[in-house]
Design a protein that fits this description.
about 425 residues, alpha/beta, D-Maltodextrin-Binding Protein, domain 2, 2 domains, five-stranded mixed β-sheet, three-stranded antiparallel β-sheet, about 40% helix, about 10% strand, Multiple sugar transport system substrate-binding protein
Length: about 425
Amino acid sequence: MKARLTVMLALFLTLSIISTACSSTKETIQYEGDPNMKASIKIMYPGGKEPFMKEYGDLFAAKYPNIGLNVINFSWNQFTKTMEEEKPDVMTVGIGEYAELLEDNRLYDLNDVITNDAFDLEGIHPEIVSLLRQYGNGKLYGLPPTFYNQALFYNKDLFDKYSIPYPTDGMTWGEVLDLAKRFPVEEGINGFFMRDFNSLQEVIAQAENLSVINTKDSKVTINTNEYKKVFEMILDAYDSKALVLPNTDAFEVYDPFITGISAMTMDYYYYLNNQIYWAKAEKGDEFQLNWDLASAPAAESSRDVSSYYYFGDIFTVNADSANKQAAWELVKFVNSDQLAKQKSRTTSFAAPTRTQYLYNPDGKRVEAFYNQKLKLEHFKKDWTAVPDGFNTQMKGIINSEAKAVMAGAKTLDEAMGSMQERGQQFLDQKLKK
């Protein structure tokens, strides 16, 4: 459990998203480096040396034994400060830092070395390559070996038992919750599980491109007709007992879906590793969950689009690095076909960007994490304008007010008014500091 906690906390530290621009360099390096080259490179990696070496460094050192690796830990809110002080050769960044570094001309242009036949882009998720090219005005300044996206998990045995059609790719949230209502609650079965009210409203709001805060005006924007429709959809499913919101945490292995009580849930790729495979390893043959996947529910207007992609480990080369050849060899290696193939033999926390190599021993539809387009609007939001602690506080406010509605202590209008007032009060306090 301690290991699961560590990787989950590391994941949540990767969320930072901001607006964009580009940069350029004229310097060129070799397309293929000498495995015997001697160099020492400094790498900024969240979590520091131990997780980096375990994930990438030990394997890289076996191929390039003469390239020393000096791994620097950092926190995301100290990213710029650490970069200025440490002057790394390689930085692993989120999409926000990627955009910011491009704007400041801090990244080395990898376009020439990547487009040469020495490195194959063909196997990498094309939507991800396209997104990064858009940020770089057609050029690539970094590549992520992994990414995160959500999908809809469903229990095939429950659907078969009650003769209900399986969920399919391209469904809307309304259609998924209507499907959930078809299960017999009188038999102790519910159609959909989510950890808490806020977790569900958050993903539905994301699909509809709604935000609880207008960062330009520093105003909370939750008391709107658009949000009311989202809340009404959730409360309707909850009142019909098709939906359960047991207020579990992200580390709870035996949730209602895993135990076979709920027919569906939605989560990120890491749900495979942290819940399903974990439970299977603990229970062995006793674990009989017959599950499969469909793509994440979407908005009516964009059924083939996912709002849930994000990146935490885009490997980039510092434009000021004196060791660009060795730095590129590392970036190339961690994104290589060779490494992806080797890692495909075991479970992973994030989805590999090379689509050919997916750990899928049970033959499930893991392509559900890959077969939607990216929603660019999500990446363009200026999340840096949101004060530290606001999102956590707002989630608590939404959950507490929703509980009051579900308990009959408040009307939805009263609760939404309180969400708006309490959220704005907290935001104002944070902005004054």
